[in-house]
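Retro notes - structure team

What went well: the batch runner handled both jobs without manual restarts.
What didn't: labels got mixed up in the shared folder, which is why I'm recording both outputs here explicitly, each with its sequence directly above its C-alpha cells.

Job 1
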Amino acid sequence: MEKKLTIPAKTEELHKVQAFVNAFLENVDVSVKAATQLDIIVEEIFVNIAYYAYAPNEGNATIMVDFVDDGRISITFSDTGIPYNPLANEDPDVTLSVDERRIGGLGIFMTKKFAEELHYEYKDGANVLTIVKALS
C-alpha cells in the first residue's frame, strides 16, 4: 500500500507533505503522541531538505510512506541534492543552555528519539533517509 509524493523541496510545500502523510494514516489507529511525533519528524526532515539539499539551487524531494508491519509506518525521504548523512552528526549536548549550545542538530536529534529505526544511504545519486515509527 505504498504511497509516493514528489514535490518541490521548498518550505512553503511543508503543509502538503504533512497532509500527504496524515491522509495515509486517516483510517489507521494512531495515538495522539505518535501523530504529534510524526508531524515533528516530517517537518524537521523536509525542512532540512528544503534548506540544505540543493542550496543555492532548487530541486525536488520524494516522500514514500508504507506500513512495514502491524502498527508501524515507514517514511522515506529522498532527494538528489548534496550527499549528506544526517545520522553521522554528533548529537547536540542538550544539557547545555540554549546560549551555550551550537546551532543546529535538534531536528535529527528529536527524530532519533521518536523513531524506532533510522536508515540512511546514498544510492543512485540520491540521499535516502528511512524512518520507521510505531503508531501507538
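Job 2
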Amino acid sequence: MNISGLLNTAAEAAIITSPVNRRYITGFKSSYGVAVVTEGANYFLTDARYYGNALSAVTGCKVAMVDETKDSGKELKTLLGHIFEKHSITTLLIENEAVTLAELERYRKMFPKMRFDTSPRLSEALMKSRVVKSPEEIDKIKKAQRITEAAFDKIVNKLKPGLSEKQIAAMLTYYVYELGAEGPAFDFIVASGKNSSVPHAVPTNKTLDDGDFLILDFGAVVDGYHSDMTRTVAIGSASESMRRVYDAVWSANIDALKAIRADITDKLLDGVARTTLEAWGYETFFTHSLGHGVGLEVHEKPSLSIKAKPSMSLRENMVITIEPGVYIPSKYGVRLEDMAIVTKSGCELITTTPKKLLVV
C-alpha cells in the first residue's frame, strides 16, 4: 500500500512493526517482520519461516531475510543499516501507538546517531490511509460478510431450548471455518435471557429457554479483512414489551443508516440513533457507541460516538458498523448491527440478512 504524504523529506524512513500495519503495507501476514518505507523504495525484512512465501506474495516491497542461524539482532541491524545508508536516512518515524519502550530502546542502540520521531505522525498517517478502503479491500469485507450471513442461516435452523450459549458459539465458529473463512473475526458474543442485557457478554453454560431473547454478535475473516454482524432472535415466543424494544432498536438502526453520508460527523450520526431511541423512551438503555470502522481490525476508526475525541467526519469508502442497542438490566437486551460503505450522499449496505424479528 502507498501511504501518501507519509515522509516529509528523502532523509526520512518509517519503520513499521505492528502486525496489522505491517500487513497493510506488505499485504502479507506474518508473526515477525519489519517493513521500511523510504522515498525511493519499500522493504520487508523477515525470517526464514516467511521469506520464501514473502518473495512470491509481497508486492511493492523488496524482500530480504533476517538469518536466525546467526545473531538475529546483528543481522537486522546490518540489513537496516544498508537501507539507511543507501537512502541517506537521518530520521526514523516510529509507530508511537504500537512500539514498546523496549523495542524503541533496541533501535536507538542499533543506530545511536539516528533521530527518532516518536510523535503520533506515523500512526496517524497509517490510520488516515487505512480508514478509507480500496475496492479490493471492500471486496474482501463483502466476502467475509457473505460467510457470516451463511453461518447465521445455518445456526437459526439449529436453535432450540436446551442448547447452551457455549454450544451455539462453538457451532458458529465451526460454520465460519466450514464456509471458507480464514477464521472468526473475534470472540463471538452469544447471550440469552438476562445475559443479553450485558452488551459484551461472554458465552456461558446457560441454556436457551422459551421467551428468551438471544443476541448473536459474530463475524468472519477473509484474507485479513473482517466482517461484523449482530442479530437478535426470540426463542419460542416474544412478549409485547420485548417486541416494542426490538422495534425501537430496529427504528434506530434504520434512521442511522439513512443519515450516513460523507462529511457527517461521528458524533452527529451517533446522535441520530439516540434521538430515535429517546422518542421510544429507551435512550438511557443505549450504553455504548453507535458503531465503528471495520477492516484489517474488527474495531478501527472512526468511532461513532458522541464522546469521540477528536470528532471525525466520515469519508467516502469508509466501512462502518451501525449497531444501536437497548439493554434492560436483569431482563433482556436487543442489538442489531449492519455494515455499510459510506458514499458521497448516503451509503451502500453490505449486510443483507433481514432484520425482521425471528421467533424460532
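One thing worth noting from job 2: The first strand starts at residue 12 and ends at 16.
We'll revisit the folder naming next retro.
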